[in-house]
């Protein structure tokens, strides 16, 4: 990059705990050192952030006058379940996808994206041959088959609740099945917020070692984050890294395990698609148990180590990330994107004053949530929307909110519009609830859409409707006492099955769905994906047999979760 083209870049902070986001920021700065000029927010031409949520601390006008680049710390499908993303989607000029999975999702959502793979520092993660010494150091049984997991498993707001993303219930189910079959193993845990799994393992009598301070009362997030050198030693002390997440941006554990030459078994999410061999991915409890059993007896996962190491080495090192980031900034320097922002930008003094005032207001004068909700829906026109608005009435009441007829002002909820719906006025925010049966012609312009699933959003974007959208499932179907083990089969090419899936999951039924769809984001571990029709008979039988265990892993909307999401939506919809 020529000196006269050096860009002024402000790197937004990470999470402040030395965790993955802080590491991303460190890597970004290191890769671009000497090629860009680090700058204050006010003087910068580019804002580069390791996660888009941090942009909420910046005035919207400032964001419009800078080129905003954001790394995807999670799959973009997940972002459409967060109310903050209704605004965040429009604040980012360029997304950096860190996996092929994220790249494909951004493209399907029609968002601007470039691909720069996740990376780890190869000087921090590498094989260590002295496994016996490592096991002695951490008081691990020398001859045991050690299964390691270093992911947070407890929700920060309630340490007794399993973290939904990491699915520790699946870990526990695998461990219990191994124990029931008489398979010998030892669990190795480390890292903060391991409360749920530690208590569960104690309760089940499953042997484990936790490396960290186990006597911390309450949240140990600031206490039990380990140095990466220690983490590398723990990885090398294990026979297998077992990952159970429902979704992942990475995780870094896949790169770390591959770099250290340790066997990995993971659900097929995030980087698993980019690095792992098919044998290293599992779709069911029984499949994971069989793989672990066979690896103990016949070392079947040994063949995965070299190809996984090669994929990590080729695409996920600091050298590769440095090359890709430098190429990105070389392309940006002098581009029309920079020129457009520079011509529209305020002086740095004006920007700095605006930011100071904005942060002062955010801190000392928080905006108040409007408790009055505009309301407009024609009952009798669509049964699915009738069910949604009937349930929504209950959720609104539980949330201590009040509804009024829509008048074009404030925050309004629209279903099937009535002929009396007035035009929206400036400053109002309208949300329209959309079901698969709602005709596209009735979707109003200048509205934000609320839909049952990601598949519904993809269908609308494929039809050219690029409205800001949020997945907002409501508990329109209650879990019945008489549960069914009969799987629900979703046909290839179906884009209108979201409500049918929620109804089936409420009845305890496993879901069999096409892998080419986005229904995984709704089903998660409560069913199986098929890649071709030949797989369907086998999966139907497997799902029927495992229905009780799949039911434990399923998550359907509750009135409590809907009320929390509604509150969050209203909080994020307040006008600056």
Number of domains: 4
- Rough outline: globular
Share of helix, binned: 25-40%
Structural class: alpha/beta
Strand order of the largest sheet: 2-1-3-4-5-6
Per DSSP E runs of 2 or more residues, the count of β-strands stands at 22
Describe the structure.
With 576 residues, the chain is α/β, with parallel strands linked by helices. It contains 23 helices and 22 strands. The longest helix has 17 residues, at 348-364. The model has no long low-confidence stretch (mean pLDDT 93).
Fold blueprint:
Elements: E1 8-11, H1 20-32, E2 37-38, E3 46-49, H2 60-64, E4 67-71, H3 76-79, H4 85-91, E5 94-97, H5 100-108, E6 113-115, H6 131-137, E7 146-149, E8 154-155, E9 158-162, H7 168-180, E10 186-190, H8 195-204, E11 208-211, H9 228-237, E12 240-243, H10 252-260, E13 263-266, H11 272-275, H12 285-298, H13 305-315, H14 318-332, H15 336-344, H16 348-364, E14 372-376, H17 383-398, E15 402-405, E16 411-414, E17 429-433, E18 448-451, H18 454-462, E19 469-471, E20 488-489, H19 498-506, E21 511-514, H20 520-523, E22 527-530, H21 536-545, H22 547-553, H23 559-572
Parallel strand pairs: 1-2, 1-3, 3-4, 4-5, 5-6, 7-10, 7-12, 10-11, 12-13, 14-15, 14-16, 16-17, 17-18, 18-19, 20-21, 21-22
Antiparallel strand pairs: 8-9
Helix pairs in contact: 1-14, 6-9, 7-8, 7-12, 10-13, 17-23
């Amino acid at each position: 990059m020529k000196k006269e083209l050096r860009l002024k870049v402000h790197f937004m902070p990470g999470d402040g705990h030395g965790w993955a986001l802080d590491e991303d920021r460190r890597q970004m700065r290191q890769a671009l050192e000497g090629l860009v000029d680090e700058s204050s927010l006010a003087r910068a031409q580019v804002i580069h952030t390791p996660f888009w949520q941090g942009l909420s601390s910046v005035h919207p006008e400032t964001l419009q006058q800078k080129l905003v680049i954001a790394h995807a710390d999670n799959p973009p499908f997940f972002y459409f379940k967060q109310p903050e993303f209704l605004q965040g989607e429009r604040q980012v000029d360029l997304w950096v996808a860190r996996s092929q999975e994220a790249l494909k999702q951004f493209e399907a959502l029609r968002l601007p994206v470039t691909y720069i793979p996740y990376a780890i520092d190869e000087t921090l993660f590498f094989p260590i041959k002295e496994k016996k010494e490592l096991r002695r150091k951490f008081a691990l049984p020398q001859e045991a088959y050690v299964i390691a997991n270093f992911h947070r498993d407890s929700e920060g707001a309630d340490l007794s609740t399993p973290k939904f993303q990491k699915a520790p219930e699946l870990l526990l189910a695998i461990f219990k099945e191994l124990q029931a079959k008489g398979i010998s193993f030892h669990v190795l845990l480390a890292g903060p917020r391991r409360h749920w799994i530690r208590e569960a393992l104690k309760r089940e009598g499953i042997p484990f070692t936790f490396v960290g301070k186990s006597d911390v009362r309450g949240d140990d997030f600031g206490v039990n984050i380990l140095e990466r050198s220690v983490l590398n030693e723990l990885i090398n002390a294990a026979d297998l890294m077992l990952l159970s997440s429902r979704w992942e941006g990475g995780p870094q554990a896949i790169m770390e395990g591959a770099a250290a030459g340790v066997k990995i078994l993971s659900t097929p999410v995030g980087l698993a698609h980019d690095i792992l061999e098919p044998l290293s991915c599992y779709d069911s409890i029984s499949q994971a148990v069989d793989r672990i059993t066979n690896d103990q007896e016949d070392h079947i996962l040994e063949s995965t180590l070299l190809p996984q190491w090669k994929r990590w080495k080729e695409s996920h090192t600091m050298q590769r990330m440095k090359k890709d980031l430098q190429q990105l900034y070389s392309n940006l320097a002098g581009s029309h994107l920079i020129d457009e922002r520079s011509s529209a930008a305020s002086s740095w003094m004006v920007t700095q004053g605006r930011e100071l005032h904005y942060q002062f207001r955010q801190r000392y004068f928080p905006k108040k949530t409007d408790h009055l909700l505009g309301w407009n829906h024609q009952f009798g026109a669509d049964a699915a929307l009738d069910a949604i608005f009937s349930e929504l009435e209950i959720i609104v009441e539980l949330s201590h909110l009040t509804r009024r007829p829509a008048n074009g002002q404030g925050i309004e909820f629209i279903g099937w519009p009535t002929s009396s719906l007035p035009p929206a006025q400036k400053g109002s925010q309208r949300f329209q609830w959309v079901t698969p049966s709602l005709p596209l012609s009735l979707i109003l312009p200048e509205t934000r859409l609320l839909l049952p699933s990601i598949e519904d959003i993809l269908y609308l974007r494929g039809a050219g409707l690029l409205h800001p959208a949020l997945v907002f499932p409501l508990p329109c179907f209650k879990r019945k006492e008489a549960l069914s083990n009969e799987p629900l089969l979703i046909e290839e090419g179906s884009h209108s099955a979201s409500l049918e899936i929620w109804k089936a999951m409420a009845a305890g039924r496993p879901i069999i769905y096409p892998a080419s769809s986005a229904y995984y984001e709704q089903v998660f571990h409560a069913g199986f994906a098929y890649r071709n029709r030949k797989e369907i008979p086998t999966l139907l039988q497997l799902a029927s047999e495992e229905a009780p265990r799949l039911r434990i892993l399923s998550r359907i909307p509750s009135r409590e979760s809907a009320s929390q999401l509604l509150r969050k939506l209203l909080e994020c919809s307040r006008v600056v």
